[in-house]
Amino acid sequence: MTASPLLDTESVPTVGSPTYPKPLRLDVERYRIHLRGLDLTEEQATEVLQTLWGIAETFVDEAFGVDSFTLARPQPEAATSPTEAAAVDKPPAL
Predict the structure, then answer these.
(1) Structural Rg of the chain based on CA atoms
(2) Cα–Cα separations (whole angstroms), residue 11 to 25, 30, 44, 90
(3) Does the predicted model carry a pTM greater than 0.70?
(4) pLDDT per residue over 41-71, tens digit each?
(5) Are 34 and 46 within 8 A, CB to CB?
(6) Which of 16, 46, 50, 62 has the fewest CB neighbours in a 10 Å radius?
(7) DSSP label at 76?
(8) Percentage of the residues of the chain whose pLDDT score is greater than 70
(9) Residues 76, 89: contact at Cβ < 8 Å?
């Protein structure tokens, strides 16, 4: 019996394929009802919802490791030694 790989890349959908999930879009009208009691104008309610949506997107991106900070920093796998890999995650000395 052969061990199965941890990540089966054959079953992962690629961008543009029919099974690739569509990106989520903010439907302001769907959530506007939750802001009724706040005495906001339509523009203010839209801005609040867009801001909250952006915050939620940031948390999701960070959780999946696709935020700009994670993508920009060096990856521990590229390190040549365990000591070097540990240094990647250390905060800079002040």
Answers:
(1) 21
(2) 25, 34, 43, 35
(3) no
(4) 999 999 999 999 999 988 888 887 777 777 7
(5) no
(6) 16
(7) G
(8) 55
(9) yes
76 close to 85: Cβ distance less than 8 angstroms:
yes
The CA distances from residue 29 to 33, 36, 40, 57, in Å, are 8, 12, 14, 18
Residue bearing tokens 């905060």:
91
Q: Which of 79, 56, 58 is nearest to 69 (CA)?
A: 58
Distance, CA of 89 to CA of 73 (rounded, Å): 9
Pull the structure tokens for residue 11: 């079953």
Mean pLDDT of 11-19: 62
Residue 12, number of CB atoms within 10 A of its CB? 10
